[in-house]
Write a structure and sequence with these properties.
By secondary structure, the chain is an alpha/beta fold. It has two domains: about 1-195, Divalent-metal-dependent TIM barrel enzymes (TIM Barrel, Alpha-Beta Barrel), CATH 3.20.20.150; about 230-300, no CATH class. Helices cover about 35% and strands about 20% of the residues. It has helices at about 35-40, 70-75, 100-110, 140-160, 180-190, 205-215, 225-230, 245-260, 285-300; strands at about 1-5, 25-30, 45-50, 55, 65, 80-85, 115-120, 125, 130-135, 160-165, 195, 235-240, 265-270. A seven-stranded mixed beta sheet has the order 1-2-3-6-7-10-11, covered by helices on one side. A two-stranded antiparallel ribbon has the order 4-5. The chain has a two-stranded antiparallel ribbon with strand order 8-9. β6 (about 80-85), α3 and β7 form a beta-alpha-beta unit.
């Protein structure tokens, strides 16, 4: 995913993070990208490293994590700025990160010379079980006290400024919860942290065909389609996710099909984000239901 990552902070004389460097355009690192980076090193300026994806649990010692120093050394040699984005010490819950995680994160930040680090404003651990994925925090006054303390602890333990990544809260708000904007602003001010922003550019249009976009070609961009373009299509199912930025486009295309007389159905998977059906480990029930719907449609259409 293309992104420009900045820690947006309150500027003040006593804020050590107010003069953080602007590092440029970056991308989340994956070893699969290395052929691209070798042939076109100019395409990005920054690599965002998720260190926990490179660590291994030792099968002979449950709970013990092995940091592969050769991987860290390789990442350090890559000719880009690096940022560290943790996925193992989220700050939106009441259970603190482990000393082992903090120590390994601090070492990674130092090796990669990252000017700041980021973490999720979410939780994935309860006193009783591991959720397997990130869930949004409770947006209450009591919660703010806990999360601000978690951000400050992370800052102190890894010794660089922290930016928080805010996810989509797809749960119905409760009466005692603080509105999204006020909640995040209060947390940022109280903990002196930044906000991690994923800023997209026009690479999507370029990848799918900028000429086709500019020409309004409906074969490349269905939103440009007219009733005449879709008339006579075979029976069609449109499946959208409630929290997907593309949801409205999918629903509008479904309505276009109906206006053109095309046999069409539309299903909306409530409480889900884009592509959640392929996350079979996190949401097996949704994956099974979607697969079943596809099979039923294929048999009966």
């Amino acid at each position: 995913m293309e992104l420009t990552q900045r820690a947006q902070r309150n500027s003040s004389a006593d804020d050590p993070g107010s003069d953080l460097p602007e590092l440029g355009v970056g991308i989340v690192y994956s070893s699969a990208l290395e052929p691209l980076l070798e042939t076109h090193p100019e395409v990005v300026d920054v690599l965002e490293i998720e260190p926990q994806t490179t660590w291994l649990e030792r099968p002979d010692r449950p709970g013990e994590v092995l940091v592969r120093s050769a991987v860290d050394e390789h990442l350090a040699r890559l000719p880009y700025h690096k940022l560290v984005h943790s996925i193992g010490t989220p700050v939106g819950g009441s259970i603190p990160g482990s000393d082992e995680q903090f120590s390994m994160l601090r070492d990674t930040v130092r090796k990669l010379r990252a000017p700041w680090a980021s973490e999720h404003l979410a939780f994935n651990l309860t006193p009783d079980f591991f959720t397997g994925f990130f869930l949004p925090p409770r947006q209450t006054a009591a919660g703010l006290d806990i999360y601000a303390g978690a951000v400050r602890q992370l800052n102190e333990r890894i010794e660089v400024p922290i930016a928080i990544e805010t996810g989509v809260n797809y749960l119905r708000p409760r009466a005692d919860e603080i509105p999204d904007g006020e909640f995040v602003a209060t947390l940022v001010n109280r903990s002196s942290c930044g906000i991690l922003l994923d800023l997209h550019n026009n690479r999507g249009a370029m990848a799918y065909g900028i000429e086709a976009f500019e020409a309004g070609d409906p074969l490349a961009w269905p939103s440009f389609a007219t009733e005449d373009d879709v008339a006579g299509l075979v029976p069609t199912v449109i499946s959208v996710n409630e929290c997907d930025p593309l949801r409205d486009e999918g629903i509008e295309f479904y309505r276009l099909l109906l206006r053109a007389g095309v046999p069409a159905r539309c299903r909306q998977v409530m409480g889900t984000m884009h592509g959640v059906e392929v996350l079979t480990i996190a949401c097996p029930d949704i994956s099974r239901e979607t697969a079943g719907s596809i099979a039923q449609f294929a048999r009966t259409a």
